[in-house]
Amino acid sequence: MQAEILHSFHPALEHQEFEIYFQPKVTPCTGAISSAEVLVRWIRNGQILWSPAIYIPLFEQNGFVISLDYYIYGKTFQWLQKYSDTLPEHFQISLNVSPLHFEQPQIFIDKIQELLRTYQVDPTHLTFEITESTYVNNTDAVNQVIRSFKQYNIRISMDDFGSGYSSLNTLKDLLFDEVKIDRKFLGDTLTENARIVLQEVFHMLKRMGKSIVCEGVETQEIADFLQNEGCNEIQGFLYYRPMCQEDFEKLILK
Ligand code: C2E
Ligand code: CA
Ligand code: CA
After folding, report:
1. Strand 155-161, strand 47-48: pairing
2. For ligand 1, mutation pick of 67, 134, 215, 237 (most atoms within 8 Å of CB)
3. Ligand 2 centroid vs 43 CA: distance in angstroms?
4. Are 158 and 130 within 8 A, CB to CB?
5. Would you put residue 120 in left (φ > 0), alpha (ψ -120 to 50) or beta?
6. What is the model's pTM?
7. Is a pLDDT exceeding 80 seen at residue 251?
8. Where on the phi/psi map is residue 50: left (φ > 0), alpha (ψ -120 to 50), or beta?
9. Interatomic CA distance for residues 58 and 68, integer angstroms
């Protein structure tokens, strides 16, 4: 299967088999959609082919993910250009960033600037999600990108926080605007200790002025807890699953 996936990549890119899906995030107290994360889907003959959880790690090993990411950014910017006048004022669209881009951060910065110019996108609608492990392994390169993006008012979110690399040291000098708490941190049910850890982490992040997003929320019990603790946004199957462009447009542009 790995060989087939790798072999299929370039023809798939050429035949535009990669599409952007959107998973809305909501404001806990109102349930209103406040932003969305763009997730890649590989579609052939109207069907989802493989999960990104399977092919993204493969494309990270051989470098294909770089061109896939740029393709997804291009599609998303094109979408933003089309709907910029109809979107709610502070609506954010988040994009995933592969760790590979930080091997040559200036090339990444230049490429994003070029895409912004090509599609004339208002950069204040954009949030880039960089994982905590990427940050831990490439702190200087990530900070270089964040500093450059700040000039454009592009937001940066720390993705997968608490999925295994967390250390208090990570938080100390954090330039990120937002922290996205990983599903693994929340689990399916909240033990008393999990509640305590979350309350204290939220408290710290709030004092630092960071926005808090929780992802992978599937139960009302967890959503209620997060709302009580002042979580800014929730993403999860409890509210919305990732959906195709057409369904997302019907939902937010109605
Ligand atoms: P991620 O960035 O952590 O994205 C969130 C993943 O959690 C998505 O999986 C989403 O469908 C899933 N999810 C959302 N809500 C729930 C929930 O309530 N319960 C459960 N069980 N899962 C939930 P998806 O779309 O399969 O993507 C997997 C990973 O692939 C992403 O994890 C991200 O690391 C990567 N990925 C996806 N699109 C891109 C892309 O365009 N570029 C790059 N570099 N990576 C991408
Ligand atoms: Ca993400
Ligand atoms: Ca995540």
Report:
1. unpaired
2. 215
3. 20
4. yes
5. left
6. 0.97
7. yes
8. beta
9. 12
Q: Is 127 helix (H, G, I), strand (E, B) or coil?
A: strand
Residue 176 has pLDDT above 70, yes or no: yes
> Could you read off the pLDDT of 182-195 as tens digits, one per residue?
998 887 888 999 99
Contacts of 157 by beta carbon, 8 Å cutoff, 6+ apart: 94, 127, 128, 129, 130, 176, 177, 178, 179, 180, 213
Instruction: Give me ligand 3 centre to Cα 181, in Å.
Output: 8
Lookup: tokens for 100: 């590979």
**pLDDT > 70? residue 166:** no
What does the block give as tokens for 16?
């535009």
What tokens were used for 70?
């740029």
Length of the chain: 254
Note the helical H segments in 64-219.
64-83, 105-119, 132-137, 139-150, 168-172, 183-186, 192-207
CA torsion 239→242→248→252, rounded to 10°?
A: 30
Average pLDDT over residues 19-27: 98
pLDDT in tens, 83-117: 988 998 889 999 999 999 999 999 999 999 999 99
